[in-house]
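Q: Convert this sequence to structure tokens.
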Amino acid sequence: MAEALETIDGIARRLGRDVYYLALVDEAGGFRDIYTDVSEITDWLDARQIGWSLCAGFDENAVWIEGGPGCIFLDVHPDLGPEAMEMVEALFMNAEGEPSVSGYAPAMLRLMKALSFAGRDDPDYWENF
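A:
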């Protein structure tokens, strides 16, 4: 059965808060496809009981109907899950605050930014594509 994938900005709007995620990136810093195998990372998250879901990445200037950038939403509340984020940051960021695991860039999407694209939640928005 097909699974509907949310966008990371849609998740932020649905939850009504800032959200953490791992952007899937290539060596040049561009987006990697949503269908990239991420099982090694999701197994690591599962082993640490950090909730996650695969979702479509966020780009202000584009909307993808099929494929496009991917990311892994980290189901960690910014105020209530500091231990989980410490584990994630310890693995995915070096001492200089730069990504340390090839292919993944830790990020946070602010709710205010996500709200500025709330028009994408309107079903009529998608019918125009």
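The helical segments are 8-15, 39-47, 82-92, 111-115, 123-127.
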